[in-house]
Amino acid sequence: FFPQGPQRAVVMLKRKLDHGGGLFDSSPGGGLLDSSFGSAAGATWTLRVDFDGDDSREVHLHRESCRSAFLTLLQDTDRFGGSRTVTLDPAWRSFFEPLMRILYIPEAVDFFVEQLLVSHARTIGQALAVSHCAIYLDLDAPFFAAFYAAVRSRRRRWSAFIDDDRFELPRAWHQLPLGHALRWLHALCPSAHAARSNLAAYLAAEPGLSESMMHDGARDEEVASGAAEPDDEEATRGWTLIVQAAAAQGAQPGSLRLGRKLRREGLEGRVSDDQVAAALAASEGNVDAAFERLSSGKGPPAGAAEGGS
To answer: Which end of the chain has fewer CB atoms < 10 Å from its terminal CB, N or C?
Structure first.
């Protein structure tokens, strides 16, 4: 749909509308963006969607839905005694169908993403809900490339504090998979300080994630972005900032890193701050050695810290 850029797309739309056509119409020629989505005619299966027991819907799907691996697996699940019913977050009610429509006309993904965000994402929180739903429905890479480009263009429209060092992303961002959390941060392009503090909050909220895993994930996204957009200097600078912010997590004071490690292992409430400080001192600042000392019950050497027992 955008093979020659947005300007060409505008010309195509204008010609269609000037000749009495529409984006979606029922004339013999159909609308420019018409598809079989939602039509019972030619449907290969039906998906039932619940929203926590409220406002259930049935959606007719066709072979185009196989662009989503998740929907493809769901289509075949009844062969094994499963169900073609999904329960979605009620907050996704208004845009889950527009997201699935994108599977039917992938060449128009840029148009649909713009339409989606204009209609359903007036804030960062609402846009995060859209991305959560898209991840759940397993939309493909072209969708997310268009989505994060649109997020990037709206960063100041969504928040007047986007460049402030105190800028904090909503809790819904902490619940994203690491790769998407990093791409969100890159698209919003906060200050270096805000990037570091938001990544620290993400680490604290994700028990199974280590500083090295976060840094490796940032490097992977940087490499992938460089391969996809080798001439985009702004994107390259943005990923450099994110990689540096991720690397800085491993350079934080040992007490913070050890605290996160204890929290991940469910030991946070079992040791005092004095014991943490003493274990770090006894291990000469080595977080892994201090954690081993505390988790094994060895504790610091006698007399290393008063009140540590």
So the answer is: C
